[in-house]
């Protein structure tokens, strides 16, 4: 009898185990057959600075701020597990202990005291945007949570929560929340910050600190109290954290280099993370300078700035507009890429090509007098002609007649080709380049100008500037040789610094387009190249705007944020001589078909002529008056208003005392008694670069 009972018990046990096993197998099949939602959570594109800090983040397609979690402060994770799911590392998606506790508390108190959801169940709800108040929804979350635990690691589940947890309004995830409420990455949070970020997802709208600060503070303090009870925080640390106020307003998400970052996102679709060479410190400085430059200058004025390391081609800062949110000033237009008149900023390249071809030297003399080129008769910006000047003076003073003469001798198409070889793209009004290009009669971009001046800084060899690591590349053809490039830089380094700025080693040139539509300054030192534009994006004039007045001070202030790097010494083969020691063909520029009188017969006693100042000239002076004659016989004597000012001179030129503003009569007399005179008008000089 006993043996029969034992046998029956064994059969019953086997059947029970079989039923349990069958039920378990069916349960496993049921869980395994769970249809999972899409697990690839879309996050916004991030554009990073050279130090991997966030330049700008972009919202996902539905307008939500959701970012990769990145590195999160361990204190936050410890508080999160303590508050939401203490047995996260040990359960399989559902915590029976938590469910029984929550159910018992609900029956005892006749209301919900605590939830029984695990972090995995919360992830299941967030993935499907489900509800927690209906039994059907809860059952679905349990099934999906169990399925998730079988398909994903704990780290993957936690990462989904850190991306999807709601923080109110259109903000999801720990990283977006930390940037919104504290303006920083969640890598290092204070106890008060960590506790608030733990508390908010439980009731993201009713606990928003900007709307309900008392509710948010109380929820935060409950998290801190539990952290003390669990030994995560000391009483002193928790007390200090509770004394901190909660943030009362939402912060703007980072938006450094907004127009550049938007352009990079457009040109690199389907890339979630874009690294750049932008230096965030220099970028902030450039944006501050652009904003300051247009402040109080009237409506619709904007500014653009570029800064690059010409040694590597890396763009360090780029500002496309003074205020990218201001529609009144067309802040949405990236003025580093817009086609604008270069004003006088292309002149140095004409001089460089003339030096490189042996046509001229910085100390070569040239005539700044009225001249016609076909039917075109260009004028200097100030409508003043200065007679015989050196090319060095002509470039520093930005005279128009000398540069047009050089370009005419070189050929405008050859000049245009040289500009393109240096990385300056051109938009021309006609198919071929004309002489007006040298005075701003064409279109360039600010980035193109910066690229061209980088070529000057690099000895004539251009480099394509890029904001992407490894994106810069050397251009295949040089603009001209290193000697000519150095000579141009040496001349431009003689430009006086703008009033009120710190003197520093820099070769720079300013430019003002026709009608005062564009004010420009471009320059470089031994390491960096910078370019500044100010004007109105719609192309309307800005009366009284000059490159020397508006753009040059911004350029110098920009370089003040950099360590000074001296310009390089001259190449060994550079000819550094005064005009009198130059080879005869280089002493005075003579256009094709015209022979310089000095080169033809330097000792011939020509008729005495007062070559400078010319009769009727309006002369700006800031010191001694330069007078020059040609021909006659030594010695020479100069008179000012009939009084001797230079007597017994062995050369027919002199520096005479400034007779003061107004009209003056100049006379030169040679040893034979021959004379020549001119009546001129003098006015104080304005030395501001144009």
Automatic annotation (TrEMBL):
Transmembrane segments: none annotated. Pfam families: BiPBP_C (PF06832), Transgly (PF00912), Transpeptidase (PF00905). Residues 66-226 form the Glycosyl transferase family domain. One of its GO terms (biological process) is peptidoglycan biosynthetic process. It comes from the Bacteria. It is an enzyme of class 2 (transferase). Residues 304-468 form the Penicillin-binding protein transpeptidase domain. Pathway: Cell wall biogenesis; peptidoglycan biosynthesis. GO terms for molecular function: carboxypeptidase activity; penicillin binding; peptidoglycan glycosyltransferase activity. In the C-terminal section; belongs to the transpeptidase family. This is peptidoglycan glycosyltransferase.
